[in-house]
Amino acid sequence: MELTLLFADWLGKPAWMWLGFLGIVLALLIFDLGVLHRENREIEVRESLLLSSVYVSLGLAFGGFIWWQLGPESGMNYLTGFVVEKTLALDNVFVIALIFSFFAVPRIYQHRVLFWGILGVIVLRAIMIGVGATLVSQFSWVLYVFAAFLIITGVKMLWIGDKEPELAGNPIISFLRQRLNVTEGHHGQAFFVEKQDPLTGRLRWFVTPLFLALVMVELADIVFAVDSVPAIFTITTDPFIVYTSNIFAILGLRALYFALAAMIHRFKYLKPALAIVLVFIGSKIFVADLLGLEKFPAALSLGITFAIIAAGVFWSLVKTRDDTHPA
């Protein structure tokens, strides 16, 4: 009976594949919080790069498993999705750094916000991907809507350029400050503290700026998911590949953040490259129709996507090689 359940179909794949993936994610989260960062401390750039390389290696290794288990096309679709999602996650670092700067979050507590933020991402992406998979399975034309949205988003990103989001007058932050009791400063790593109300003298619960930073990080991911979820669905509609490539790309974001935050200015041309990738991914479905193809070749899609992103990273490093401080 137990073996039958393990091989039972769940969203197009046997249950043991989903359980194995979720087991890996759970083990990584426990190892991260319970072993590597059991005590609050600052994460140095060298440690950040090392941990990030481990997460990237695990993500690629899982792609190798998919290639072996499900075939070359599924493997290439996973790798394409992983590369795109990883690049979108890198773009997310720019916004997270801005949020931490706005709320003056000490570096020693930033990992705590990122850890709980990642847990929220895992749940939110599961919900959004589940909804997306249902829509695509019921209404195939939704893929064309996703594709058109990606093209528009990519063009908009190219048009806006490096314009940063404005947090000082953000209506969500204003709303939270008006509706919640917020402390003036940070209270260590606490999201909530109990203290005397200055007006009544009674003990009341207050939220800290660290909690507001967590809320904004979660909201930022929702905004980025609006781009990333349609992007991966135009690459593949397989829920297993969609979700696993998303989560493996995001899992290493915490580790990579502390290295990238110190050299964000070196990736000046990453966003334009990402915009071009979104336009390319969105246009694939229309190109395939024009050429009379069932779908755009997975190998060609992976090659073009990787080439665009690699060119953006290379050109950024070349053009900013003499820069020592962010512009």
From TrEMBL:
Pfam (any one): TerC
Subcellular location: Membrane
Keywords per UniProt: Membrane, Transmembrane, Transmembrane helix
Topology class, membrane: Multi-pass membrane protein
Superkingdom to which the source organism belongs: Bacteria
Membrane-spanning ranges: 15-36, 48-68, 88-106, 113-135, 141-159, 205-225, 240-260, 272-292, 298-318
GO CC aspect terms: membrane
InterPro entries (alphabetical): Integral_membrane_TerC, Integral_membrane_TerC_rswitch
PANTHER family listed in its UniProt record: MEMBRANE BOUND PREDICTED REDOX MODULATOR (PTHR30238), THYLAKOID MEMBRANE PROTEIN TERC, CHLOROPLASTIC (PTHR30238:SF0)
Family from the record: Belongs to the TerC family.
Protein name: TerC/Alx family metal homeostasis membrane protein
Annotated source species: Shinella kummerowiae
Record lineage: Bacteria, Pseudomonadati, Pseudomonadota, Alphaproteobacteria, Hyphomicrobiales
